[in-house]
Design brief:
about 280 residues; alpha/beta; three-stranded antiparallel beta sheet; 9 helices; binds adenosine-5'-triphosphate; antibiotic resistance; translocase; AAA+_ATPase
Length: about 280
């Protein structure tokens, strides 16, 4: 089927990458709407980075059709590259330059860059402006990577495991930054192993196993999660109790009536995104 070129930020059909006999990406389909935040999930070695690097134009595909902002990424025209921001899994360049110098240097590659000082502040590195890149901690280095990804005001931002090594507060601050960018209309494709990150940030998630997209849904509905039975837990005279039900409100109302008031240690839960993801991965393994 012919791809309609400019309707989506990303459209890939039957995407393939083989290394010798190994099918790292094996006929993967992916559509990302403009303005959407899309998270790619999947176990180690599933093919997420290979997919993202083919979409960025850094790796040649072995097969399939791809359009990113209406362009075949393998062509990588200059004006297209300036519309895209990339945060790779790890970078180790420019060790001797200061944070400010690195960001200023990268700003020069773009026709309409953001102000370097503003970007440094947005990623929370203002106190480290004058420090050389090589003395930054792992999490600070990652923030610098993110700064370089957004300095060109990209329409589409690729983030490969962006918050690995972040402390909890830095992760929250990063999430705020991503929400800001998304609110400003930036399309974002990220890979992550943190299910809470996917749940908080993503409009939709896609699960990749063995080079194939096995599910695409909103975080709330992945794997039938939205309609899964609720688990009610409480403590009775003879110890902890639990019960699975499709009608938790009615079940809890009956419990309250039975107890004649408060039910000790009452909780009602649905499967977390992590529960759903893990059972999905086991099924397709
Ligand atoms: N240059 C390469 N040569 C040969 N095999 C490769 C190459 N790059 C990746 N692979 C293989 O392709 C598969 C997919 O790797 P990829 O890095 O895309 O996985 P991933 O889903 O990003 O994993 P992770 O979550 O660990 O980052 C793996 O089996 C990997 O060993």
């Amino acid at each position: 089927m012919e791809i309609v070129t400019d309707a989506y930020a990303i459209e890939a059909k039957g995407l393939r990458k083989t290394y010798g006999a190994h099918h790292a990406v094996d006929g993967l389909d992916l559509t990302v709407e403009r303005g959407e935040v899309f998270a790619l999930l999947g176990p180690n070695g599933a093919g997420k980075t290979t997919t993202v690097e083919m979409l960025e134009g850094f790796r040649k595909r072995s097969g399939g059709e791809v359009h990113v902002l209406g362009v075949d990424p393998q062509r990588r025209p200059l004006d297209w590259r300036s519309r895209i921001g990339v945060v790779l899994q790890s970078t180790g360049e420019f060790e001797e330059l200061s944070v400010q110098e690195v960001v200023q240097h990268f700003a020069k590659y773009y026709p309409n860059p953001a102000r370097p000082d503003e970007v440094i502040e947005r990623v929370g590195l203002q106190a480290k402006r004058k420090d050389r890149a090589k003395v930054l901690s792992g999490g600070q280095r990652r923030r610098l990577d993110v700064a370089l990804g957004i300095i060109g005001r990209p329409e589409l931002l690729f983030l490969d495991e962006p918050t690995t090594g972040f402390d909890p507060q830095a992760r929250r601050e990063f999430w705020d930054l991503i929400r800001d960018l998304a609110a400003g209309g930036t399309t974002i494709l990220l890979t992550t192993h943190y299910l809470d990150e996917a749940e908080t940030l993503a409009d939709r998630v896609g699960v990749i196993t063995r080079g194939r997209m096995v599910a695409v849904a909103t975080p709330a509905t992945l794997g039938g999660r939205g309609s899964a039975a609720a688990k009610v837990r409480w403590t009775a005279a003879d110890g902890p109790q639990e019960h699975d039900t499709d009608t938790p409100a009615k079940f809890v109302a009956d419990l309250v009536a039975r107890f004649g008031g408060e039910v000790p240690e009452l909780t009602v839960t649905r499967p977390s995104l992590e529960d759903t993801y893990l059972s999905m991965i086991q099924e397709t393994a």
